Each structure stands twice: as C-alpha cells, then as structure tokens.
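Why run this: before we spend reagent on co-expression, it is cheaper to look at a predicted model of the complex and decide which construct boundaries make sense. The entries below are exactly what would go into the expression plan.
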Amino acid sequence: MNDNEAIQACLSGNSDAFAEIIHRYESKIAGTVIGMLGRCPEAEDVGQETFIRFYNNLKNFRGESSVGTYLTRIAMNLSLNELKRRQRHSSRIISIDDPDVSKNLHENRNHLDVEETRDIVQWAISQLEPKLQSTLVLRLMDECSTEETAVILQLPIGTVLSRLSRAKKQLIKILKPYQENL
Amino acid sequence: MRKSRAQKLLFQSFDLDLELREKRLLEEALAEYPELIEERKHLESIYRKALIRKTTSFSPWFVDRTMNRIRSLSNLEKSIDISVGVFLTAFRRVALIASVMVVLILAFNVSTSAESSLASVIGIPNTSMEEMVDPINYFMTE
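The model came back. Tokens follow.
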C-alpha cells in the first residue's frame, strides 16, 4: 500500500491504515525530533503529536509535497515550539557555558569512540540558535538536500545557504577544542 | 580573493554543486589560505560524524501508542459530537416551543388591548407621567 492508498483508506474510515504511515515514517521523524530536542520524553510527545496533527488534517492534504516532507515540516515546527517553551521555562539543561558539561567533555576528549564523537557533534548542534539548528539538523542529520531543506522550512534557497554558512562557522568554533578527536 | 569570500565559497561547496569557475576560485583560495584547508578537513569530519546514524526511532511500540491516542481522540470527538447533537436537538424543541408561546402572548396582548402601541403589544402597562410623579403623593410621603 503506498502513501496515497493509505491516506485514501484512512479517509474512507479505515484508521488502521494510518499505522502503516506511522511505521513508514517513524524513523525519519524520530531523526528530526531527536536531532532537535535530544533523547527525552518530550521528543516522543512531539513525535506522537506530529502524526496526530497529520491524521487530523488528512482531509486537507492535497499531495502538493510528499508525505515525508509534510510530516517533517510539522515535526520541525513542533520541535521549534518545544525549544521556545524550554527557553521560556529556562530548562535548557545543557549549555555551552555549563561548566560541568564542558568539564566532562574536556576530561574525556582524549579518548572518544565513534558514538561519543557523534554525541559531541549533536551536542554542538544543539548549542546553535534554533533557526540555525533546524537548518543544520535537516541538512546534516536528516540528509535532506539543500532544496528539500528549503521546501521543508518554506524558505528561499539563498536563506538556507546563508543559515548553513553561519551554522558551520559557529559549529567550527564550538568544536575547536575537539578538532583532533573528530 | 578575500578570505571571507573564500570561506563562504568553501561552506557552500558542502551544500551546492559549485560551478567550474567557482571551483577554480576555491582551489586558488585554498592554495592562498592554508588554514582553510584545515577548516575544510574539520568540516568534512563533522559532516561524517553527524551522518553516522544509529537507526533512529522512538521507544518501542511507538506505532501502537500513537494509534491508541488517535483512536481515543477520535472516540472522544465522536462522543462530543453525539452530546452536542443531543443538546442541539433538545434545544431546538425548547426554542420552538418558546417562540410559539411568545407569538401567542403577543397575539393575546394585541387582541385585548384598546390601543395599538408597541408598549401594549409587548404588555408594558401604559403609565402616564402624572401618575409616575404625583406631587400629592410625594408630599404625603415626605
């Protein structure tokens, strides 16, 4: 059953067909949401909310963009909302200035395995401001092309490129101390 | 070429297919600014590390949990729809009976009143100004 058939089945009352869509896109949406929020309970809530919103708006889905793009756009918007909520409640636990985190990373940076270096890159991405972070997560971790990133974020390609440049500049700066281990 | 322009070109090379002319300019810039070569290596390794994907997924049974939420929300919506429907049906009857009663009262007022003013149709007693401000009554109460 392809996406359109599954959607048609849902619209004609077979809600179980939607499980097929969730199954198909769970990994993609998890990549986006976890890339933005990290592994935390809120990430799963955002993941569920993404699919629920899509389900509630199935009638309005005209198929102008693919299901994956549409879902990623919802997931990204919800993740950005969650980041705003966190900032409001000042609960962004990990910060570049957080002495404990920096200390731990500094202490361990001489013997890092693949997983750890990947985590450090993820951590560095999470330090960027949300609009740069969203662009980089789509481009780097979700492996979207520049054009796809622009479509998902509903931005001109030029803006995406300039955000990517700024993000990379900041990323290089943040990861300077770990350059030898990466 | 200025270093900032060269750096911009270097960053773009990760996200765009540069034109031949741009590629040549970048190569020249890399020869001119060796620190950009280091930057390119660093970026390449960041890209590589970020792309090492563990199979990302939410916790087990995500599909089932999400489907359960969707079903319970649909059931809730259905029950709200039913309650609203019952309320609307009942309210429609009450509203109909009330409007018939209002029409009957107005008709009764029109048929029993001697004059045809709005006040008499609505059923407001027609009190004159003299009756309202009666000086004798006023002095007596004082």
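Confidence is low (pLDDT under 50) at residues 92-101 of chain A. The CA atoms of residues 69 and 151 of chain A lie 8 Å apart. Bring this page to Monday's planning discussion.
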